[in-house]
Amino acid sequence: MAGIDDEEKRPEIYKKIFNACEDWGIFQVVDHGVDTSLISEMSRLAREFFALPPEDKLRFDMSGGKKGGFIVSSHLQGEVVQDWREIVTYPIGNRDYSRWPDKPEGWRAVTQEYSENVMELACKMLQVLSEAMGLDKEALTKACVDMDQKVVVNFYPKCPQPDLTLGLKRHADPGTITLLLQDLVGGLQATRDDGKTWITVQPIESAFVVNLGDHGHYLTNGRFKNADHQAVVNSSYSRLSIATFQNPAPDATVYPLKVPEGEKPILDEPITFAEMYNRKMSRDIELAKMKKLAKEKNSEDLEKATNI
């Protein structure tokens, strides 16, 4: 992004971002303006948290319907294979960091500075995407009404049998845009052919991976892809990633901002982001149940065949 404010360099940067959004919905940005020392400190403190004894981490347990905290293996209800990861997550609504873990010392203050910097970068990216679409540069930001933010820190321990699990199952994010910081171990993969081929997103130190979510996909009438991705684990190294989700307000309208002549809107009618999110979660849970039933049926059929 170096030179993005330079009139001569800007068109080439815009072109690269625009092409990446059309082809993949996922790309990496460097020279983005977020201080590398802040990024390093956020990552260091995150690793210190996950190295704490279980009893210290479980003080922030998010079970029982809490909106944030610490959890081991987040997975959909009824899913056969659970995610191989530990997570600490909090919504950062109204810039409230009081519920962020108080260990290690200083993590709350660093998280505050980090999340504010990433919010600024996300808004800048949305301006770029708006202008790339031929819209007013504030168009995507205004469509969010009141942009919400959630920070999710993922820790993927070394896995003795990585072929039997995933760090994070295949999905697309529901929100507008996600900025992901991944360490140099790597493990993020993306596909654009419905999972037939997976490409590993090679880590670049201090770079942010930008994922477009479902909301961004719908606002652009499907022109920009919602990044189809997953995370894999390995048996040799643990891995850390920090995802900052930029989501619209629950009552924000989800509908294409611009429909090119000759095209049909990707949605039948406008809906709220809350409704869009609920529909997505219901579909994902139903799909998980279907996968589980199919696996159980296959096991039964195999057992019958063996007995014969």
TrEMBL record:
Sequence ranges assigned to domain Fe2OG dioxygenase in this UniProt record: 144-248
Keyword Electron transport: no
UniProt key word Iron: yes
GO molecular-function terms, A-Z: L-ascorbic acid binding; metal ion binding; oxidoreductase activity
Pfam families: 2OG-FeII_Oxy, DIOX_N
GO BP terms: flavonoid biosynthetic process
Keywords assigned by UniProt, alphabetized: Flavonoid biosynthesis, Iron, Metal-binding, Oxidoreductase, Vitamin C
InterPro entries: DIOX_N, IPNS-like_FE2OG_OXY, IPNS-like_sf, Oxoglu/Fe-dep_dioxygenase_dom, Plant_2OG-oxidoreductases
Cofactor(s) annotated in UniProt: L-ascorbate
Family according to the record: Belongs to the iron/ascorbate-dependent oxidoreductase family.
Name of this protein: Flavanone 3-hydroxylase
Organism in which the protein naturally occurs: Thalictrum thalictroides
Lineage of producing organism: Eukaryota, Viridiplantae, Streptophyta, Embryophyta, Tracheophyta
